[in-house]
Model the fold of this input.
Amino acid sequence: MEVLILDGHPDSGRLVSHLLDRYAASLGGVTCSRRRWRSGGRDRYPAAAYWKRWEIAMTIDRRRAHPLLVLALLAAILPSSSGRADPCLDAAVGQAVEAGVPQALAAGQLGGLTPDPAVLSAAQNQAEFTQPVWAYVDASVTPEKIAEGQRKLQRWAGDLDAIEARYGVDRYTLVAFWGVESSYGAVLDDPGIVKPAIRSLATLACGDAGRAEYWRSELVAALKILAAGDATPERLTGSWAGALGNTQFMPSVFLSRAVDFDGDGRRDIWASVPDSLASTAHYLVLEGWRRGERWGGEASLPPKFDLALADETTARSMAEWRGLGVRPVREDGFGDAQTAVLYLPAGASGPAFLLMPNFAVILRYNTSFSYALTVAHLSDRLRGLPGFARAWPRGDRMLDTDERRALQSLLADRGHPVGTIDGKIGPRTRAALRAFQASAGVPADGYADAAMLEALRAPAK
Done:
């Protein structure tokens, strides 16, 4: 027996009765009984003296009517359980219907949803943008994760052979994505981590004003996945941001990139490892992955090297970099004609990296450098390569979110544009910081640390 509870004015009761009599009969396989509680509802609406609480109990013959279809239709035709419409969710239903999602499905999934406060909190505290790069790498590239990844390489060797042959993306990169995104699928059934994707995306679409349009489009895409039958509502779970499955595709990416590699007729990135890894390979190829090339690697710099050349944007051939004294720590995979950019994520006192075009493709999967380096480094460790040659400056005090915003504001005030002042140190902020460092006569490594914040706070000379 399924139960629907709603609060409303007595007139709503007559409407409910009419609708139930009309639609329950037309559905077939549905028998409804009704009870009215005269004293109910005022706990939620104390000023509404005449509001009542209604309980509708439905017995559904599953041989004749699917419960989800019945409830979706009833949610579309009955008054809201709160007695009040949510304009944002109503607009999302309309947008979904315009995009081809059935009205009953959209209204059934979005009707009565409440925001998830944990989702909005997570949106303001993304670890890849708030932790030091070494802390983010350390958390994912552990001995346990390396060992488990190597077991997965053996377990799925046959499928990985076929995926490599079709798409040209190496198995180590694919399994590294899997490990970083979902700990090789271990988190997918953990209710403390995964969340209902529809609720998460609805929360963001109606609560994150700065990116509301993006979240609405992803919400519609998630509803399309349900409409296509690629997932059930119970299975459509993901991260706080609505990223789905083993390798955490956003719903729009699922629609355009996911593939049915195991041939069972469904694109299943939750339970099918071949579908998950092949879908990731398909995504990377469409984003420009170069077959047979590596992501790059750690580099050694000569004494008194001009750090302004490490601007993370200017690509030079490896022959040019070698002419400047820059050498890969491990030479394999660095031909003279290949191009790379040079980047110092922790400034002059940390490791340097030569980043080739495939690293930029990893960044398109997630725009955080910390994330991309973690995937790249885990792929190397799965190959059997050692860790970083140069130590990270772990003793440095990192800036908190407010301090990073202050640093961005101070850079902008001094004429060095940073883009959005959001507390996230990205390429534009690092470029602005390098410009300030050059003007101040200090090494222009673009490293946002406490010393640079103090330098910016000092009166301009």
Summary: The beta strands are 2-8, 30-37, 52-60, 195-196, 237-238, 296-300, 316-317, 327-328, 339-343, 352-355. Residues 1-19, 34-54, 76-84 have pLDDT under 50 and may be disordered. Residues 135 and 394 are 9 Å apart (CA to CA). Residues 2-84 form a domain with the Alpha-Beta Plaits fold (CATH 3.30.70).
